[in-house]
């Protein structure tokens, strides 16, 4: 019994040594096979990256700039009486259309009418006296000074009639232009003074739009440029307009230039005072290469690059960009029409990596 224990220990040690040798041979052979396979095949095969592509093409684009502004009437007037008096008649309905020269409000004109009648009577008397003096002068019964005095009195009488008519006319408030009247501030019987507000009148068949742009655009602005106008009062619609005038003075505080545009409003969809968004078309250019903004990958510094797919592999290409609009960017340098660029999946890419297209290439034009 004493001699068997060393024998058992020796047999166990020999068995463990044999197992270790077998494991070393097996793993070593497998490792050697892997190394040989790698050397023969040039390394393990790289898995392709799933990406989405867009094919670029050149097209005509419009350089534009956005701004906001406020619509104003083509013509706008707040009517005041030219003299004090009591309102005798109102000849319009609130919010109605009126024609130029139409009498809107009449003040009590009893005094002015009496003055006109008196002036007409004096004119008739002066005319009669002037004819009689002229006849007497022709027969040498009066001097030339008497004739001149009669002619002078006649002119004074005529001037008195014109003055009385003007005072009578001032009791009638007329529309200065075709337009739409607002809500009146007076009623029949009110006593008004020359500082009181009667009603406003607006010409809205054509509207003006005042807006501002940064001074850096000054060299590219000119009257006649087209613009598109939109407003929350007409969602989903755009209205064409045209730059009418550019203020010659730049605002020194805001460093902005004031522009005024005009737009037709025949249907009356828009109203003065409405907030509006402006898209001013500064220039139209042909052959501009546009790419989706999603294709751009920022790099350290101020450089940007895209992945262009060539023969199934992604190639990193540095690009120079221009204008941006609506998720698009102009490619000034680095790409050509027909190039296919990656728009999704860039995070897993490196230069030269194989790619698999997730879906048919979309033409971007």
Provide a descriptive summary of the structure in words:
Helix 2 (110-138) runs antiparallel to helix 3. This protein has a six-stranded antiparallel barrel with strand order 2-9-12-11-10-13. The model is unreliable at 26-43 (pLDDT under 50). Helices cover 25% and strands 41% of the residues. It has helices spanning 4-41, 110-138, 144-169; strands at residues 49-56, 58-79, 85-90, 97-98, 103-107, 172-174, 179-181, 191-192, 199-214, 226-230, 239-251, 256-264, 275-292, 297-298, 304-310, 313-325, 328-333, 340-344, 355-357, 362-364. It is an alpha+beta fold and 365 residues long. It starts with a helix and ends with a strand.
Relevant terms:
365 residues, rod-shaped, OB fold (Dihydrolipoamide Acetyltransferase, E2P), four-stranded mixed sheet, six-stranded antiparallel beta barrel, alpha+beta, Elongation Factor Tu (Ef-tu), domain 3, conserved putative lor/sdh protein from methanococcus maripaludis s2 fold
Short description:
Helices cover 25% and strands 41% of the residues.
């Amino acid at each position: 019994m004493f001699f068997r224990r060393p024998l058992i220990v020796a047999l166990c040690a020999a068995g463990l040594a044999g197992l270790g040798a077998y494991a070393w041979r097996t793993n070593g052979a497998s490792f050697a096979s892997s190394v040989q396979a790698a050397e023969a095949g040039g390394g393990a095969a790289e898995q392709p990256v799933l990406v989405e592509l867009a094919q670029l093409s050149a097209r005509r684009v419009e350089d534009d700039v956005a701004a906001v502004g406020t619509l104003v009437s083509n013509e706008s007037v707040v009517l005041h009486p030219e003299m004090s008096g009591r309102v005798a008649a109102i000849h319009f309905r609130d919010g109605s259309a009126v024609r130029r020269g139409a009498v809107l409000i009449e003040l009590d004109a009893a005094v002015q009418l009496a003055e006109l009648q008196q002036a007409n009577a004096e004119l008739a008397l002066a005319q009669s006296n002037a004819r009689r003096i002229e006849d007497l002068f022709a027969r040498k019964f009066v001097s030339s000074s008497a004739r001149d005095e009669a002619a002078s009195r006649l002119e004074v009488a005529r001037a008195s009639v014109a003055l009385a008519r003007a005072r009578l006319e001032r009791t009638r408030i007329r529309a200065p232009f075709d337009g739409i009247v607002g809500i009146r501030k007076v009623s029949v019987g009110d006593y008004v003074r020359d500082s009181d507000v009667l009603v406003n009148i607006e010409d809205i068949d054509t509207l003006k739009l005042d807006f501002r742009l940064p001074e850096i655009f000054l060299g590219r602005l000119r009257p006649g440029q087209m613009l598109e106008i939109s407003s929350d009062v007409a969602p989903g619609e755009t209205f064409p307009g045209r730059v009418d005038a550019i203020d010659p003075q730049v605002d020194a505080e805001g460093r902005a230039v004031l522009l005024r545009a005009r737009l037709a409003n025949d249907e009356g969809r828009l109203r003065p005072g409405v907030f509006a968004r402006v898209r001013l078309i500064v220039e139209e250019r042909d052959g501009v290469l546009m790419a989706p903004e999603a294709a751009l990958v920022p790099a350290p510094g101020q450089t940007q690059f895209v992945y262009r797919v060539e023969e199934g592999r992604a190639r990193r290409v540095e690009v120079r960009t221009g204008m941006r609009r609506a998720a698009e960017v102009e490619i000034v340098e680095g790409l050509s029409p027909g190039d296919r660029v990656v728009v999704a999946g860039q995070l897993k890419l490196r230069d030269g990596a194989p790619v698999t297209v997730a879906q048919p290439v979309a033409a971007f034009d």
